[in-house]
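Figure S4 source data
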Amino acid sequence: MIPRYSRPEMSRIWERRNKYEKWLLIEVFACEAMTKAGLIPKRALKNIQQKARFDEDRVDEIEKTTKHDVIAFLTNVAEYVGEDSRYIHLGMTSSDILDTSLAILMKEASQIIINDLKSLLPVIKRRAFEFKDTVIMGRSHGIHAEPTTFGLKLALMYEEMKRGLVRMRRAKEGISYGKISGAVGTFAQVSPKIEEYVCKKCGLKPAPISTQIIQRDRHAEYLCTLALIASSIDKYATEIRHLQRTEVREAEEFFSKGQKGSSAMPHKRNPITSEQLSGLARVIRANSLAAMENIPLWHERDISHSSVERVIVPDSTILLDYMLFKFTDLIDKLLVYPKNMKINLKKTGGLIFSQRILLELARKGASREKAYELVQRNAMQSWKRGVEFQRLIKSDKEIKAYLTKQEVDNCFKLDYHLKHVNTIFKRVFKEG
């Protein structure tokens, strides 16, 4: 069943017809290779090429009896081909078809995800430059720390999603292996030359060695890559959810005309897309664990991985395609509130400049321990009494012994924290 989140291009990959088409393609390519090797008469190959087809409903009907999908498929193809069908699947095993076709499908799905990432990156870049110098409160443990810029948050996102693109390309390469090596992978009934021919025609590489199956560490790496990308989306969706909180409200999901936030409270504007993305990421992460559980199989193969992959591979690729589509739209239309960012910068009464005071005291001769004690003493008073931190620092007799009023004022300037923003942007985007 195709999940309801599926988009047409990705869902088509995992439709039953497309899967059977790949199976038929592999079987015909194998027949071509065997004909070249003198194992199948040319007349028979021509007949197979002209007549080989399937009816997916008929395949499913036959499978009710056979309880074996590949045999049901081959039986249906034989109904079209006739006597020459005895040459189809010659010396091959079911996994030759299943694993090679799955590699093709996963490779196709990879390219869609790669294209999704390539569409996302320019959107993030545009918004990063838009807010490159927009100052926002940097937080650690959720508490105000030191100033940063909203553009830097987006530059961080860009760099992480760029790594996701690199990983996805690598995962595509890692999964692009097929096998036509027979029942336990020894090529006892089918030559390695057949495998080389089929894989080349399918746009794959032959697995250097296989058992009855392609080894599942390849599939696990692929699913873990999807999980990493989904987790990166989750990370930034979580950031947006926090920034949209009423008491913060520094950024907000676009709220379209006619949209409703709550059945009970008409005022609500909820971060529903971000929450949805965080939720779906959990599914993809869980699927990656299932993929790792598929790696240890009995001897040359058992079938415990098969049922799992029929769920996790289509679901994860479909969900990530959907997530990237939604995330791109989310970032593209994200509402940003610089005025609220400025308001929030002032909420702690200047406490966010405490490290600067600490360092200046150390430079002027105070030990680090003494400097920390002096700054923290005033910071705690600022928290407790709600008095401006800068005022307390200026009135502290011990601090006056080290710093002039002008030197204290210099410590409370925002520009100090932004002097390397351009350098970071050049590192990330290779331009100013």
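Figure S5 source data
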Amino acid sequence: MGYPTINDEPVGVCPRCGKDVYEQKPGFFCADSVCGFAVWKKNKFFEFKRKEVTRESVAALLKDGRVFITGLYSDRTKKTYDAYIVMDDTDGKFVHFKIEFPPKDDTGND
């Protein structure tokens, strides 16, 4: 790893190779540099939603593949909403994300 780790505790397990993922200054990286898994803190998807990539959100993404985030910003409506951010990793150079909305209950409430 090029940068020193911010915390010696791993954030989680790499979904590509199974090794530990650590937080470093620019993001969260697999301990195996050949693997190439990384979630950058300056991530365009999160920036468009006006949210930061945090240790807690990456830990949830690594554990469950998704994390529930409140106050996501919609550029189209200029409003905020709550939804799951789902990690959509295709083993490519970059990890991608998508939005999933929680199911509505029978009363029509969230």
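DSSP finds two helices and seven strands in the chain. Strands lie at 12-13, 20-24, 27-30, 38-40, 66-73, 80-88, 96-100.
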